[in-house]
Amino acid sequence: MRLTCQFEFKDKLKLPIHYNHMLQGLIYNNLTDEGLRTFLHEVGFKNGKRSYKMFTYSRLLGKYQVDKKDKIIIFESPVKLHISSLVDDFVNDLSTSLFKSEKLFLGNKEMELSSINAEYPIFKDRYAKIEMLSPIVIYSSIKLDGKNKTVYYSPKDSIFSKKIQENLIRKYTAIHGKTPEDDEFTIEYIGEKEPRKSVIRYHKTMINGYNGRYLIKGNTELIRLAYFVGIGSKNSQGFGCFKLQK
Length: 246
Prior knowledge:
Blueprint: E1 2-8, E2 13-16, H1 20-29, H2 34-43, E3 45-47, E4 50-52, E5 55-57, E6 64-67, E7 72-75, E8 79-85, H3 88-100, E9 104-106, E10 109-119, E11 127-132, E12 139-144, E13 147-152, H4 160-176, E14 185-189, E15 197-202, E16 205-210, E17 213-218, H5 220-229, E18 242-245
Antiparallel strand pairs: 1-8, 1-10, 2-7, 3-4, 5-8, 6-7, 9-10, 11-17, 11-18, 12-13, 14-17, 15-16
C-alpha cells in the first residue's frame, strides 16, 4: 500500500540538507506495535546474509529553498511525504497512528497531518514509465588493497539494469521464500538530460543516487514489488521511491 501524507506547520520548516534519517525516525517513532517496529528495524526479511525492511519513502515534496551557507533546507507549508510497503501491518499501524496523533514532530518542529490517502494500484502491464521521488541507489561492495570499498553504479553503466534486477529478485525471495518463475526485469533511463546525481549523507555514510525518469519492463510481480518496497538499495533509508507516469 502507498500512503500520501500531507503535513502543515506554522512559519517555516528548517531541516539539515541531509534529512533522510529524520524521516525514518518519524516513521519508526509513530509505529505503535513495538514488536513490528523491532522486527523491521533490527531483523527485517532475510535472504542469506542480507536483510530487507520492505518499505520506502520519498523526499519531502513542496516549495523549498536551500541555504548553502548554513547547510539547511527551508520548506514552506504544506509538504507531502509518500510512504510505501507491502507489509500491511506496517502501513495500517502507521496510518492509524499518524491519523490519531494530535502532535507530530520532525526534529523539533511541530506539524499537523492535514490529509492522508492510501493507494493500492493494480499492475497489469509488463512495462511502466516512472519518475523517482527519492534517488535510486545500486552498488557493490568490493575489496581493494585489503580494504572494503563501495562502488555505486550510474544509470549509464551497462551493469546498472542487471544489478537492479538481482536486487529485486533477492527481495522477492526474502518475502516468498522462493525465486520468481518469471525473473524478467529491466530498467532504462529515459530522461532528456543526463541523469542527475544526488550525494546524500545518511548518518556518517555518503550515498550516491540518481533521480529522473525511467522505463521499467518485465514481470508484473517484480514491477509491483519495486513500486511498493522501493527499487534498488537502501530503501528504508529513503531511497528508491517512485511514482508512475501516464
